[in-house]
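Sequence, please.
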């Protein structure tokens, strides 16, 4: 049976091994999070326990992502493999635990099979960011198993082991805070620990330590999610309650008919009709009443129904984090209670039917086949971000988050007109959606519609004057337009609102640098690195400015830091070569230029710099005339005979190879081009070079080109 359960799980979700990362949360959880992409380190483990991770606190989940990067790097297939593996383990453990608790093999197997392949499971398994679901599920199933063992063989050791598993589950996903109540339900049925109609006090007392643990972890979670919580002023309590009631019924409907599933469902806010809420209240009340009335004859109704409600309670939206109405992932563990309820009720209801086993067996096969087919199709929508958002937009309406996220994907692929349309659609649906408004301005700026972007941003700031990102985007647009003073003012305003803003400091540094305020620019790059130590671009710009101030040793240190962060950064490899040449270390400079050309063979500056040193350096062991000619000719070809500095390198390379006539011709062309550009200082240098070539001698210098 375990093999069968594993087989149907992989039949549905094995396709995810060919899927990529998504542009929705996967960046924050994995591929743009340096603490995670660095792999498993002591620093990373400490960070996982002491910091928020995407506005959550789930250190074991964070560590599992680090382990994925340690073993698979950023190969998304490896990360997906772990998700599917953990879900498979949870499925098999659920079957084994239910069988141990109830003694029923086939009913337990059916519940586990539905849990394995129901289309509502797709979001939890196919989305790398939902690692917390599948990891916490494994610990939850182990907790149930350990609890059964404790109940049947009471001992302190068994209780401690069970408590440790609860703690591990909570550190994977704090949604497990209601586990003590679920264990109480399991005591009622199927463990039947209640003495008649009375509750054994021991049953209550043994849950108290677990409850204390849950409360403590809830407090930590509340702290972690504070930034993502929607204030009551924006979403009143009554609207939350109404949506919570309707959501409980929506999940019932989706369990029975899992169609039009999406990654994001917009919150209805005040748009729910009174009739919808009243019908939801009526249905929930009716099911609850039936469960209570039949609790002695059908005790599984109590366990199944209240399992569903209890496990759903932490994510039902009374404390609203994010702007979703509900989410498929929130049903991952809660709906197991409904599967229990339906399975045992159906089996008992048909107890006296003739051919009962054949009917139930055939029905179970049909249900599992249908769910497997629908889940396979639903999983296919998660193959990439474009497929996911197109499907979401097709099955939902008035969905600003989907329009905005799809717009970001298009923006990243320079499909600017389409991105602008998506951001505009999101802003039209929800004018107060500041992220969409900001992204629209970014797309307009990138499209070259800078004045339009500036007007748009200033209009946003009239509504939301304390939005740091909007001031930052305004600074970017003004910087692109060349209005440096206004750009500096916009960045400074953004930083006054949000002092720890690495990108704000970085771009302020660029604006100051272009304004000639180099010392101030250096200070801003340093602040950017304080806020974001792995900011390779800030290291690069800091190095450039330090080099411009002749602080060569500090510049080399900044470049080296950038290369530790991103070894394949060609601009840094090139510029550290220049700095090392200034320090009289040509061999090391050559190594970096060669590395630059390995990364990008058409990098003109590196071709020119390396060619120059190989042609002109005083030490014969450094020079290589033939290689210098090849490099200079390639740089000249790429520059289109329009760069006098490259013509000077080409002339020097010809001279080093003994081709003095060609050297003089090229140098003369460079002299004329320098004069045409008004660069008379360079023209004078060419005149000096030509005088040297007339004596059939090459240029010798340790200076940079």
């Amino acid at each position: 049976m375990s093999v069968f359960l594993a087989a149907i799980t992989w039949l549905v979700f094995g396709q995810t091994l060919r899927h990529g990362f998504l542009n929705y949360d996967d960046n924050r959880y994995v591929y743009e999070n340096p603490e995670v992409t660095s792999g498993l380190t002591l620093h990373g483990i400490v960070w996982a326990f002491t910091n928020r991770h995407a506005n959550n606190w789930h250190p074991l989940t964070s560590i599992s992502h680090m382990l994925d990067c340690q073993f698979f790097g950023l190969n998304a297939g490896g990360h997906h493999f772990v998700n599917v593996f953990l879900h498979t383990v949870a499925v098999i453990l659920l079957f084994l635990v239910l069988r141990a608790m109830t003694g029923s093999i086939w009913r337990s197997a059916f519940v586990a099979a539905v849990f394995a392949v129901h289309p509502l499971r797709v979001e939890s398994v196919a989305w790398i960011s939902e690692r917390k679901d599948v990891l916490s599920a494994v610990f939850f199933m182990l907790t149930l198993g350990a609890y059964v063992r404790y109940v049947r063989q009471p001992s302190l050791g068994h209780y401690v082991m069970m408590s440790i598993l609860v703690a591990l589950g909570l550190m994977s996903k704090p949604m497990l805070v209601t586990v003590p109540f679920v264990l109480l339900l399991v005591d009622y049925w199927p463990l039947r620990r209640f003495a008649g109609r009375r509750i054994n006090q021991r049953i209550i007392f043994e849950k108290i330590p677990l409850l204390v643990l849950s409360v403590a972890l809830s407090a930590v979670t509340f702290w972690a999610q504070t930034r993502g919580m929607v204030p009551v002023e924006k979403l009143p309590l009554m609207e939350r309650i109404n949506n919570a009631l309707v959501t409980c019924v929506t999940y019932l409907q989706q369990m029975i008919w899992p169609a039009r599933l999406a990654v994001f469902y917009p919150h209805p806010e005040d748009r729910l009709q009174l009739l919808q809420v009243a019908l939801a209240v009526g249905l929930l009340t009716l099911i609850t009443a039936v469960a209570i009335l039949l609790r002695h004859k059908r005790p599984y109704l109590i366990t199944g129904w209240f399992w569903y409600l209890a496990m759903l309670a932490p994510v039902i939206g009374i404390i609203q984090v994010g702007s979703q109405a509900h989410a498929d992932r929130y049903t991952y563990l809660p709906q197991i209670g409904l599967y229990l309820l339906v399975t045992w009720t159906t089996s008992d209801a048909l107890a006296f039917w003739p051919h009962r086993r054949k009917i139930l067996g055939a029905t179970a096969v049909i249900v599992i086949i249908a769910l497997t087919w629908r889940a396979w199709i639903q999983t296919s929508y998660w193959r990439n971000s474009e497929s996911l958002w197109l499907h979401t937009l097709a099955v939902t309406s008035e969905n600003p988050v989907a329009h905005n996220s799809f717009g970001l994907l298009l923006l990243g692929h320079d499909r600017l007109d389409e991105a602008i349309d998506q951001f505009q659609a999101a802003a039209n649906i929800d004018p107060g959606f500041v992220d969409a408004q900001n992204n629209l301005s970014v797309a307009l700026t990138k499209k070259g519609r800078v004045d339009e972007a500036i007007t748009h941003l200033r209009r946003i700031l009239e509504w939301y004057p304390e939005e740091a990102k909007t001031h930052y985007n305004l600074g970017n647009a003004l910087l692109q337009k060349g209005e440096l003073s206004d750009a500096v003012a916009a960045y400074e305003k953004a930083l006054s609102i949000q002092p720890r803003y690495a990108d704000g400091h970085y771009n302020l540094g660029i604006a100051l640098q272009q304004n000639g305020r180099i010392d101030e620019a250096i200070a801003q790059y340093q602040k950017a690195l304080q806020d974001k130590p792995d900011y390779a671009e800030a290291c690069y710009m800091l190095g450039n400015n330090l080099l411009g101030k002749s602080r060569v040793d500090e510049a080399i240190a900044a470049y080296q830091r950038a290369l530790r962060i991103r070894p394949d950064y060609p601009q840094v490899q090139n510029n550290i070569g220049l700095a090392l040449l200034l320090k009289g270390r040509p061999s090391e400079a050559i190594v970096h230029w060669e590395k630059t050309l390995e990364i990008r063979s058409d990098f003109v500056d590196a071709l020119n710099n390396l060619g120059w040193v190989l042609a002109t350096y005083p030490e014969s062991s450094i020079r290589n005339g033939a290689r210098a000619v090849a490099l200079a000719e390639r740089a000249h070809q790429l520059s289109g005979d329009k760069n006098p500095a490259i013509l000077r390198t080409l002339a020097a390379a010809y001279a080093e190879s003994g081709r003095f006539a060609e050297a003089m011709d090229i140098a003369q062309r460079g002299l004329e081009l320098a004069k045409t550009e008004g660069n008379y200082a360079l023209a004078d240098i060419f005149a000096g070079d030509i005088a040297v070539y007339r004596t059939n001698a090459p240029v010798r210098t340790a200076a940079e080109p």
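The mean pLDDT is 94.
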